[in-house]
Amino acid sequence: MTKTDDQLNNEIGQLLFKSSPNGAKKVIAQLEFSPEMDVCRYLFDYYDQNDELNWYALDSDITSPLIKAVRELRQYYIDNNLTNGLSAWRGCIITVDIENAKIDFEFKYERFIPLFDDDDLKD
C-alpha cells in the first residue's frame, strides 16, 4: 500500500522525535541526496533547554528508515505531480519542535550541506 504524504510526514516526525537527545526542545535534520538518489549526506542538530545548538548522531536503526521515508516522500511528490513541472527537490531540512509537537519541511533544490576535508576539521 502506498503511503500518503501525511503518513510519511508523521513517520519522519516520529523517527526524529524517538531519536532526539534527552532535553532536546527542537531537532533539525538535514538530508541531501545525490542526483541518482543512491547516496545521502545528513546532519542532525538539536536545541537544548538553554537554547544552545548541538549536534548528535543517530543509530542506523533510525537513520535507515528515516532516509527511506524521505525518499518515499520525494517520490510521492513526483508521482502526484506536486513539483509544478520542475525538478524534484534533492534534499530537505526537517525541523521537529518537540515542545509544540510540530514538524516543518524546507525543501532544497541545490546542494546545501557543505563538504569538509581534513583541513576543515583541524583546529
Any chance you could write out the topology, listing elements then pairs?
Layout: H1 5-19, E1 26-33, E2 40-47, E3 53-55, H2 60-79, E4 91-97, E5 102-108
Antiparallel strand pairs: 1-2, 1-4, 2-3, 4-5
Helix pairs in contact: 1-2
Organism: Frischella perrara
InterPro entries: YezG-like_sf
Protein name: DUF600 domain-containing protein
Can you give a write-up of this model?
This protein is an alpha+beta fold and 123 residues long. The chain has a single domain (5-121), classed as Murine Class I Major Histocompatibility Complex, H2-DB, Chain A, domain 1, CATH 3.30.500.20. It has two helices and five strands; from the N terminus they run αβββαββ. β4 (91-97) and β5 form a beta hairpin. The longest helix has 20 residues, at 60-79. It is globular.
